[in-house]
Amino acid sequence: MLDLDPDALEPADRYKLLIGAIVPRPIALVSTIAPEAPHALNLAPFSFFNGVGSNPMSLLFCPANRPDGGEKDTLRNCKPAAEGGLGEFVVNIVPAAIADRTVACAEELAYGQSEFDLAGLTPEPSRLVRPPRVAESPICFECRTVQVIRTNPGQPGGGNIVIGRVVRVIAREGLVDGRYHVDPDLLDGVGRMGGLSYCTTRQRFTLPFGRAALGQGVPPAATP
Ligand SMILES: Cc1cc2nc3c(=O)[nH]c(=O)nc-3n(C[C@H](O)[C@H](O)[C@H](O)COP(=O)(O)O)c2cc1C
After folding, report:
1. Which residues contact residue 9 at a Cβ distance below 8 angstroms, ignoring those fewer than 6 apart?
2. Model confidence over 23-47: pLDDT tens digits?
């Protein structure tokens, strides 16, 4: 049994344990704009990302501090107005068709330079927030920032939880049915694994809810 005290490990090794074991992780491609330069569009992927609750509809993603302890551009842009940000962002869900362009958006560009241009993605005006959504994304969540929780302010690798309230959901025609079920084939979402690995969501299986799932295992049809 490996029994590890995280405080005795290097931060880089703690990071490898997190991203190698917490898999697959959904990917938020987050668009923001700089409060002081409204034409400076920013776009970056974040896989420390998830939903928070449905009442109100809210989600979170986690931009870590940079190696110098400073804030990534996305956090600088989307933090609440009271903290100097614009207080708004859009989470664009990533289908396999734009996985490569999404990863390209992780490139460090000078503050104010747009990853939309670098990756060849198309900004489309949002309905209620100022940052644009990504036209190539099948479903986008327009958000107002509720709160940023900082686990180690100003320190390298410190975590920041950005909680956003979803104020608009924009989905491609046909993706969501009349009962608000999202078609997983049309979504064709991708996930991030450890290292440089990613996965698709094309190998799925169903299980009955709760104790009825016991003994079902993974149905053979789901194995390659
Ligand atoms: C698929 C993917 C997922 C990522 N997830 C995160 C994450 O959850 N948190 C984080 O701080 N950086 C993450 N990164 C790195 C950021 O995208 C990268 O630091 C980016 O340059 C930040 O952009 P910004 O400075 O414009 O905010 C991820 C990169 C990739 C390719």
Report:
1. 17
2. 999 999 999 999 998 888 999 999 9
How far is residue 67 CA from its own chain's centroid? 20
C-alpha 150 to ligand 1 mean position (Å): 17
Residues 85, 76 contacting (CB under 8 angstroms): yes
The yes-or-no verdict on residue 223 having pLDDT over 60 is no
Is any ligand 1 atom within 6 A of the Cβ of residue 160?
no
DSSP character string of 28-96 = EEEEEEETTEEEEEEEEEESSEEEEEETTEEEEE--PPPTTSPPPHHHHHHS-GGGTS--EEEEEE-BG
Identify the residue whose C-alpha is closest to ligand 1 atom 21: 106
Q: Is the distance from the beta carbon of residue 79 to the nearest atom of ligand 1 less than 6 Å? A: no
Cα 30 to middle of ligand 1, angstroms? 9
Q: Is the CB of residue 126 below 6 angstroms from any atom belonging to ligand 1?
A: no
**Entry pTM:** 0.96
